[in-house]
Write a structure and sequence with these properties.
Helices cover about 10% and strands about 35% of the residues. The strands form 7 sheets. It has a 4-stranded mixed β-sheet. The N terminus is likely disordered. The N and C termini lie far apart (about 155 Å). It folds into 3 domains: about 120 residues, Cadherins (Immunoglobulin-like, Sandwich), CATH 2.60.40.60; about 100 residues, Sandwich (Immunoglobulin-like), CATH 2.60.40.60; about 100 residues, Immunoglobulin-like (Sandwich). It is mainly β. The structure holds 2-acetamido-2-deoxy-beta-D-glucopyranose. 2-acetamido-2-deoxy-beta-D-glucopyranose (NAG) binds next to loops.
Length: about 350
Amino acid sequence: MKTTELTLQSCALALLLLSLQFVNGDVSYSFPEEMRRGSLIGNIAKDLGLETSSLFARKARIDTEGSDTRYCDLNLSNGDLTVVQRIDREGLCGDKASCVLKQELMLENPLELHRISLHVQDINDNSPQFNNDLIHIDISESAVKGARFPIEEGHDADVGKYSVQTYNLQSNDNFILGVGSNSVELVLNKELDREQLKEINLVLTALDGGSHQRSGTVVIHVTVLDANDNVPVFSQTVYKASLPENSPLGAVVLTVSATDADEGLNGDIIYDFGHISEDIKSMFAIDHKTGDIQLMTTVDFETASSFELRVTAKDGLGITSYAKVIIDVTDVNDNAPVIYLKSLANPIPENVSPGTEVGI
Ligand SMILES: *[C@@H]1O[C@H](CO)[C@@H](O)[C@H](O)[C@H]1NC(C)=O
């Protein structure tokens, strides 16, 4: 019995597929997604001109084309088509602009097939979202005004006017928002200076176009990268020191010092001698890290009373500053007096008068 019925149904189906003249009028309904279960979509009997009384007798039923899922139900006593389960447009159609559920109304005796198109309208049931809560961007402080930095767009599962329509960037000193057709960008409006501001947090809001507008936010964390734009600066352009002659070897004559506003490697300073004459090169040494200038040989005021050196301060990326060091050697009483006797006339007569010059 069952087999017979199935065979009959199969035959009927085959017949249907072969003879589309059985397809009568189509009908379409448009209604918002997420309607409550039992909500009325429309009255199919009225819209197709069918007798409500015949629905039961003709075994009227609703099928979903190519699927077992039932979205709507037909009341056989009055022809009302109602929602049987949640219809989520985003779940069914993703970001497609239109979302149509194809249903069929089947009637027997005689066989009749009516296509029913259910146009599911989007409601603003989703808020714009960003992939992450936080976006990190590194921007060099040497970036010029007008430089653009793309930000990943916000997304809204809704379509059309309920999708993301506008963006709003928290007001700040450096950036404005650039929105293209397919991109959101931070546009540098005022150049960055790491020495003033190392990090900037900006809240970007994506807004959809619903009358009850929904929004989503992301925090953009901008790290301002050091562009090594600061030269080392010596504390003095000319350093002066006095060095007592015969100072012990290794004595620190003076310490030069430079600072660099840049950070890390860029701000690490290496001291060295600049151009110094060959003959005094061996006399002094400079500590590359501390800037201490040490005496390496003995100095003799009587040989040279002053030295002039050039020192350099170089930061991690090779930006160099220069300063001058003048070392004055001070005399110390390191020599015993020596008498040189000249023009001594010999011998001196015994009667020489007092006061006579006898020698220089
Ligand atoms: C079908 O319609 C009849 C008549 O309007 C009503 O009494 C009945 O409750 C409906 N059935 C369902 C399942 O909604």
